């Protein structure tokens, strides 16, 4: 499968951004340009069944990882995965070979499947209208309400349900966690205290964003960007300084 891709910046210092379920690459409408201004060439695909990419009702977490790997450059300096995108990043991590991998508000052990996820996802898609988002996500800007409402219309729940079935009851932790971090909302509805401790013990650096919510890239953009840059090597940041070039496609 060929994925639609959104890009910001240029050059050969790459950052890869993977969005979460029911979203699209547009979720990075602030983070992508900010990383480009830091000097990165930012590449953000729409994952299968999301945004402008085709659905795949037989998808698995492995097929998502394969599609993402085919759409992004190998060995990027930075890879970021939000929620479901973090799960995809974990499965792809060994082959992607990122200099640093950051997982946004997602644990990497999954619970066994409890019933068919498809009806719940269809109901979630139906309710994610602009009025519902304004009421339930008051920290979203009007641009972000529009981005999320559009993404819900584009989202294929059958693709995501197949993904969830394949990912249930698994430990997705990458073998090499020495260049990995977890950026978690505090409190988090998605990452338990036990999972934070487990990932920290396995080598992850853990950052907590006090008062944050799951969509850290929206209401907590500055805190998220600071956490991502904090974990990058000083020599890379020095090389990037002044090299940023903005743009989008």
TrEMBL record:
SUPFAM superfamilies: alpha/beta-Hydrolases. Keywords: Hydrolase. The keyword Zinc-finger does not apply. Residues 16-220 form the AB hydrolase-1 domain. The keyword rRNA-binding does not apply. GO terms for molecular function: hydrolase activity. InterPro entries: AB_hydrolase_1, AB_hydrolase_fold, Carboxylesterase_BioH. This is Alpha/beta hydrolase family protein. It comes from Pedococcus cremeus.
